[in-house]
Design brief:
Largest sheet: none
Order of helices and strands: HHHHHH
Helix content: over 70%
Shape: globular
Radius of gyration: 17 Å
Oligomer: single chain
Number of domains: 1
């Protein structure tokens, strides 16, 4: 008798999809769980999680915003002092004011 065992390993695509669904559903716990399973939490994906915190979990926002800013400064492409200052201002605005404009600015900065 021949027994065949298979290891079922979720692919990165499904993890990315789980992460996106959790963001779309504004489910912080699921988004965090999916983020931990990603092979790499890119700066862009970390920013999307930060947007969720700004909206749904303000207690986690400040610390996560500071971590994201540190990553942006060290990992970003051609980050200048002015760009870092713009990112910091947009992070403050994201929590306290014009969320849409702040999110747009941060997204543009992260992709440059």
């Amino acid at each position: 008798m021949h027994t065949c065992e298979h290891a079922f390993v979720g692919n990165a695509g499904s993890i990315h999809a789980d992460f996106q669904r959790a963001l779309d559903q504004r489910n912080v716990m699921r988004a965090e769980a999916a983020a931990r399973q990603l092979p790499v939490l890119t700066l862009d994906k970390a920013l999307r999680l930060l947007f969720l915190y700004a909206e749904a979990d303000p207690l986690k926002y400040d610390r996560a915003a500071l971590r994201w800013l540190a990553r942006y400064v060290t990992e970003g492409k051609a980050v200048s002092l002015l760009k870092a200052q713009m990112a910091l201002a947009a992070l403050a605005e994201l929590r306290a004011g014009e969320r849409e404009a702040a999110a747009k600015m941060l997204t543009e900065l992260a992709r440059r």
